[in-house]
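Sample log: DNA helicase.
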Amino acid sequence: MQIKKIKAWWDKANHFAEEAYNAPYRSAIARAKREEDDLFMLLVFSEMMGVPNPASYYTMELQPLLLERFHDWHIRMGMEKSPLDHFKCC
């Protein structure tokens, strides 16, 4: 019984210490992930924007999966309207 209480306290202390240690780095990690996602989105839709892509055969399969996030991406990249002629998302 005593050991279970100590283990529960240890788990809570470990969780608190982990959260306190990771808190300052969360925004940097989120920013790095967003930049990585933006680069991946550019790679997937580059052929549609006229940029040659040697991996277009493979990235074309991913386009339907990323269409939901396409509008947020082109707004974040500074394009008010969709850069694609045949695909209007807004």
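Observation: The mean pLDDT is 88.
Observation: The two ends are 61 Å apart (CA to CA).
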